[in-house]
């Protein structure tokens, strides 16, 4: 199998496609079987494509990257468990609840967590209300 980056000379869209071999690509091209998925034009050409070389060092680097990602995800999940156990979930009402606590001196036994837009977070910070944004990994136990 070989993957080529193709370009439509009619609408200038580029896309990738797999072929059994370079010979197979040439055969399909000659018979006009290649067409653009955007405009259905038959004016398809190969473009320059850098080969993806895999060597031992790149494999080691990708394995290290995967291990680091797993470690970070485990740490985030640990923080999430702590937050879920010790904070009250307020969902999309986070900005409202944060303001209620801040301005009404509402004493909450637990802190809160939830979702807010970046504009809401910016406004809260401008008002002097401390907030933190953390990544959240959805539980995929379905």
Structure, described:
This protein has 142 residues and is of the alpha+beta class. The chain folds into two domains: 2-46, no CATH class; 56-126, no CATH class. Helix content is 42%, strand content 18%. It has four helices and five strands. A three-stranded antiparallel sheet has the order 2-1-3. A two-stranded parallel ribbon has the order 4-5. The two termini are 35 Å apart. The model has no long low-confidence stretch (mean pLDDT 87).
In short:
This protein has 142 residues and is α+β, with helices and mostly antiparallel strands.
**H/E element string?**
EEHEHEHEH
Query: Cα-atom Rg, whole angstroms?
Result: 26 Å
Describe the strand arrangement of the main beta sheet, using strand numbers.
2-1-3
* Helicity level: 40-55%
Q: Characteristics of this structure?
A:
alpha+beta, 42% helix, three-stranded antiparallel sheet, 4 helices, single chain, elongated, 2 domains, 5 strands
Give the helix/strand layout.
Layout: E1 2-8, E2 14-19, H1 22-30, E3 44-46, H2 56-86, E4 87-91, H3 94-103, E5 111-114, H4 118-126
Parallel strand pairs: 4-5
Antiparallel strand pairs: 1-2, 1-3
């Amino acid at each position: 199998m070989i993957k080529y980056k193709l370009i439509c000379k009619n609408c200038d869209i580029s896309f990738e496609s797999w072929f059994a071999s370079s010979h197979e690509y040439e055969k399909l091209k000659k018979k006009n079987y290649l067409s653009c998925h955007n405009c259905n034009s038959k004016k398809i050409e190969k473009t320059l494509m850098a080969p993806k070389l895999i060597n031992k060092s790149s494999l080691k680097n990708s394995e290290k990257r995967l291990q680091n990602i797993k470690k970070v995800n485990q740490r985030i999940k640990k923080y999430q468990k702590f937050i879920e156990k010790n904070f009250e979930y307020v969902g999309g009402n986070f900005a409202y609840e944060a303001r209620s606590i801040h301005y009404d001196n509402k004493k909450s036994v637990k802190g809160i967590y939830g979702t807010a837009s970046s504009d809401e977070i910016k406004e809260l910070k401008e008002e002097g209300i401390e907030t933190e944004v953390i990544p959240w990994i959805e539980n995929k136990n379905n």
